[in-house]
Amino acid sequence: MIIASYEIIAKFKKKHADSRSALDAWYTLAQKSNWKNFEELKGTFSSAEVFKECTIFDIGGNKYRLIAGVDYEAQVVRVKQVLTHAEYNRDKWKKEC
Description:
Elements (H helix, E strand, L loop, with lengths): L1 E3 L1 H10 L4 H13 L5 H7 L4 E3 L2 E6 L4 E8 L4 E9 H5 L8
Parallel strand pairs: 1-5
Antiparallel strand pairs: 2-3, 3-4, 4-5
């Protein structure tokens, strides 16, 4: 998969240093994947969920959330936001989906 908008991840890692290893692990796995559908994605990230047009990934043992749009045909993951669990619970991210 091509990971678009990596700068969102990079910015979050600068602000939340303890997220670096978990986000790097997510990036490595996602980049090496060739998912054809959500079921295949769940094989890599079992805790992933779908909300409308977004896929939500648990990062760092549920400490963070990565919100993305996944285009299986184009093989692109467009990162929309990376949030702390508290930010995620405010539900403002849902407007982008």
